Amino acid sequence: MKMKKVLVSAAALTGTIAGATVVANADTVTVKAGDTVSELAQKYNTTVNTIQQLNNLSNPNLIFVGQQLKVNNDNNGQAVAQQNTNNNAQAAQQQATSQQQNTNTQAQASTQQAAQQSASQNTQAQASNNDNYSSNVSGSNAAAKAWIAQHESSNNYNARNGQYIGKYQLSASYLNGDYSPANQERVADQYVAQRYGSWVNAQRFWEANGWY
Questions:
Q1: Any idea what the Cα angle at residue 139 is, between residues 137 and 140, rounded to 5°?
Q2: Is the confidence at residue 33, as pLDDT, over 70?
Q3: pLDDT band of 153, cuts 50, 70, 90
Q4: pTM to 2 decimals?
Q5: CB–CB of 205/196 below 8 Å?
Q6: String of b and e for 58-89 (b: at least 16 CB within 10 Å)?
Q7: Residue 26 has pLDDT above 80, yes or no
Q8: Is residue 112 within 8 Å of residue 166, measured between CB atoms?
Q9: Distance in angstroms (rounded) separating the CA atoms of residues 60 and 37
Q10: Over the Cα atoms of the chain, what is R_g?
Q11: For the chain, which end, N or C, has fewer CB atoms within 10 Å of the first or last residue's CB respectively?
Q12: What is d(CA 175, CA 187) in angstroms, rounded to the nearest whole number?
């Protein structure tokens, strides 16, 4: 009877130990029902990988009630600190990369804006030059020029006849999209000078052929 009581007490004590997590020492714990390696790692400020390596666990998801697990060693604190340092360094690097990308984007936008402003200024300067064009045709050439303009469009800068545009009925390709009166005058003078040498010769050709 006494022996039976002793065995029962011993079994009860064993069950109590198996049912609770007992810290064997500062670096070792006893697994209780429901424990997982990830929870132990969080509780003891370590990592799953560290516990797996310290205890040679082939499967960190497979542990047993009553099993003794090392959760720390002398280098664990240093490893955790190093991991935190690495994380901080990575975050700093990411922030620096983001800032550099923002800087590059701003520089690119500034360069693009400067290029657009320069193009706009060149366009305005060209338009100003066209608007300020003054023909140096005079005398009989001026009279011939006026004669051709009258016969081509009745002196109408806005006249249209298919691909021929303006006062002198020039091809649209010659005007290059600029149909302003100043550009029509400039291109007409250039065209006649290159093709006929003078407006007088252009008029003679027109009279003979009905066009110039």
A1: 100
A2: yes
A3: very high
A4: 0.41
A5: yes
A6: eebeebeeeeebbbbeeebeeeeeeeeeeeee
A7: no
A8: no
A9: 6
A10: 48
A11: N
A12: 7
